[in-house]
Amino acid sequence: MSQLRHRNAVSPLRRDTPDRAALPTVDDLVAVERPDVPMHCLRPAVLAATARDFVTAFPGNVLYAVKCNPEPAVLRALWEGGVRHFDCASANEISLVRQMFPDASIHFMHPVKSRRAIREAYGRHEVRDFVLDGADELEKILTETGHAGDLGLFVRLALPPGDAAIDLSGKFGAEANDAVALLRAARPSAARLGVSFHVGSQCLDPVAYRHAMELAGRIIRAAGVEVEIIDVGGGFPVSYPDIEPPPLGAFLAEIEAAFDALELPAGVRLWCEPGRALVAAGGSVVVQVQMRRGAMLYVNDGVYGSLSDAGALGFRFPARAIRPGVETSQDLAPFSFYGPTCDSADIMRGPFLLPADIAEGDWIELSQLGAYGACLRTAFNGFDRAIIAEVRNHPVVRMADRSAA
After folding, report:
1. Which single residue of 248, 281, 334, 366 could bond 317 by disulfide (Cβ 3.0 to 4.6 Å)?
2. Distance of alpha carbon 241 from its chain centroid, rounded?
């Protein structure tokens, strides 16, 4: 049980890698530790295998979106799986990745950056790639890097609203005419010029990438400049109860076909920025029931903790009960959760399918939480304590109408 670590924020860096065969299972940990704070369970073998499959399948560079889960144990597992490129959104993320992996390729892909962050990224951490979506940001990058001659400049395109679970079309992105002007303005200063876009998080429609690629092609042609890279962003989906997306191959087929149809010069490369698709299956959280009122369970984690996506977004995570030494009922019933804070908005309606006789003191493992779980925790009401552990078993993914290991 020595792999347990208490945490209030991102865990401290650790250079050693535990023997995975000796790692405990989730049930072992619960039986021994009987945790009364949320316990985050990381599965390094799952993370490494998922990364390996994605890197092998994608016809270009895979940039892990660090914001999705910056836990060092996660980053180590992805590195083991072959990820060598990292999409960072802040100076702190850049520093973390560079500290862990001196040879990593780091890309500063936030469209709006402070001047100090740009200086630190370029001067201290050898970051050369920067995204932008406006003339002011281009000026900042050029000024704060001393008009360096080795910059990679990427113009992020605005996309029309789509049907992704989380639409990302409103906050960032240059409209077509502005993007044309930015490409022309950036070309003389760019050792590498690219366009990027993001179809939205948890995108279920492979054709969305084709439409975005077609828009990118029209803008590149209108600008009349050569580009070296097209970055298709993230958005690759994963399964949740009642959500079974098309396989990854369907998305990659659309991307490759649309890329070929652009008939760009030889040597133009594809990039992508997956987050959820790489790490969702590699993490879960174990919560404890503190009270039951009918079909409502009061648990010790919530929307101000690692279950933000289960709140306003209404994500349903695979759920199973853990009762060490006690037989679990096979009769399932739908439940909703209240989190531990005093805020009535701290509610996760689910429904989550659990044994009908679940009671105070029982534990619940919620899977598919390697993405946007622990990294979104706050200290609201003082509920900031949690445990992190690396485990060896694969998650049990219970969907609404079937079970699979």
Report:
1. 366
2. 18
